[in-house]
Amino acid sequence: MAKHDTPLLDELEKGPWPSFVTDMKRQAETHPECWDILGQLELSYKDKITHWKHGGIVGVFGYGGGIVGRYSDVPHRFPGVEHFHTVRIAQPSGLYYSTKNLRGLMDLWDKYGSGMTNMHGSTGDMIFLGTRTENLEPLFWDLTHNLEQDLGGSGSNLRTPSCCLGESRCEWACYDTQDVCHHLTMHYQDEIHRPAFPYKFKFKFSGCPNDCVASIARSDFALIGTWKDDIRINQAAVKEYIAGNYPSNAGAHAGRDWGKFDIKKEVIDLCPTGCMWMEGGELKIDNAECTRCMHCINVMPRALKPGKEKGATICIGAKAPILDGAQFATMVIPFIEVSKENEYENVIDVIEQVWDWWMEVGKNRERVGETMQRIGLPNFLRVMEIEATPQHVREPRSNPYVFWREEEVEGGWERDVVAFRKKHAA
Amino acid sequence: MATIEHNGKSYEVDEDGFLLNGSESWDDNWVSYVKGVEGIGDLTEEHKKVIDALQEYYKKNGIAPMVRILSKTTGFPLKRIYELFPSGPGKGACKMAGLPKPTGCV
């Protein structure tokens, strides 16, 4: 496999940001197929169209997903990318690695693949980019036998769950996101590896409403940490912020002069519910009116902390636009205990209630959020055996097309028009 | 596109080994070929039941059935389908039945 001229791609070696072109050229020195990926990419830049064929079904025995097959539509020009399959590798929760583990993985990929990777795919998997069909089983053998790691998910199944780094190094985590993520990943291996759903389904776990793993936008089932009791206030630290001894937002805005910290302007007046005030030099919060948006905590992390009665909110149904429009997840359970002691049994119960229903009524390639839209939130809540509360809506409906169940209406639906005509002549 | 020779017969297939013209060229000889490449042991009545169910559904509806429907019509849980077809209902059973390659975000 020879070098190709890549005048358009060469432009992308200029500038300060790490250049993927430079990296790939370096990789091509030991993996010549990378010249062909550069060559094909250059051709795509020129033609302004992809040069990968449609689809591709490859895999390893026992699993129905985990590997995304890909073939070049110009293999005679770029034989190195004739097959260019992508392998999804299950990542550790929070993406903490040892160099020993990474070296093991890269030795494996050097042996069986192009050596090119994506660290990481949007869903969370470590992604090995580019190998041939005949390498898949040997790669999978070594991955499982030598490194004791597994593939991630693809297809109409539970995709690889991911989480924010949680309690490992964040003082706002309201539950152990990494442990939940790991536990549920292990618990649902069968659902990850063998597609059995109407469509894909994703879990994401965030320790607090800052939602660093974007669960509310990018997972069908989002578990977002929160608390029930009062925000913990350290009044001495509040004074330090006011005095300018502690930088606001932990110095996140230090790159520009925003003037002296003003607690009224930057915290109290920005609180979305207006439930904060200063009284006798002390910061007060009316916690009953607090929606736990995280703003005050984000601004004064050394003075304010989430409460002690921690748990999470469950939001369901986020998805990208296809087919019937983008959706954020809908709040379904305002507060649920998230406890290692019961091995997250109550969270698992909710998940299975969703699955039992969706697997039965979900149409082919219908995300759970679309199924919820189709049957309506009231019906979904009934399926979930959850009582409707004001928290389930942002505002009540404005149209009057209200359905009643027959048993809710006195006399039911069976009416006799003759009886009606006795009182009202036609 | 490629051609596969098996027991003197040839078949037009795509890169993933799916029949290009489906039921037209599908026959028992194709089944015995796929058996060899998809890690399938002895061909049993259960395999045939899955293949028949897939072909019947495809003929009637023009698409492959959802996994759940395949399980319902055959009475085999997904686990059993993987025991019969190690690559699963898509890559294994659909290929053997001569159905088109599954598409979408796989």
TrEMBL record, chain A:
Pfam families cross-referenced by the UniProt entry: NIR_SIR, NIR_SIR_ferr
Keyword list, A-Z: 4Fe-4S, Iron, Iron-sulfur, Metal-binding, Oxidoreductase
EC number assigned by the record: 1.8.99.5
Gene Ontology biological process: sulfate assimilation
GO cellular component, one term: sulfite reductase complex (NADPH)
Domain of life: Bacteria
GO terms assigned for molecular function: 4 iron, 4 sulfur cluster binding; dissimilatory sulfite reductase (NADH) activity; heme binding; metal ion binding; sulfite reductase (ferredoxin) activity; sulfite reductase activity
Domain 4Fe-4S ferredoxin-type, first and last residues per copy: 281-309
Protein name (Swiss-Prot/TrEMBL): Dissimilatory sulfite reductase alpha subunit
Organism: Candidatus Electronema aureum
TrEMBL record, chain B:
Alphabetic keyword roster: Cytoplasm, Transferase
Predominant location category: cytoplasm
Residue intervals passing through the bilayer: none
Cellular compartments annotated: Cytoplasm
Gene3D superfamilies reported for this sequence: 3.30.1420.10, DsrC-like protein, C-terminal domain
Annotated Pfam families: DsrC
Top enzyme category: transferase
Family per similarity comment: Belongs to the DsrC/TusE family.
EC number: 2.8.1.-
Name of the featured protein: tRNA 2-thiouridine synthesizing protein E
Gene Ontology biological process terms in this record: tRNA wobble position uridine thiolation
Origin superkingdom: Bacteria
Source species taxonomy: Bacteria, Pseudomonadati, Thermodesulfobacteriota, Desulfobulbia, Desulfobulbales
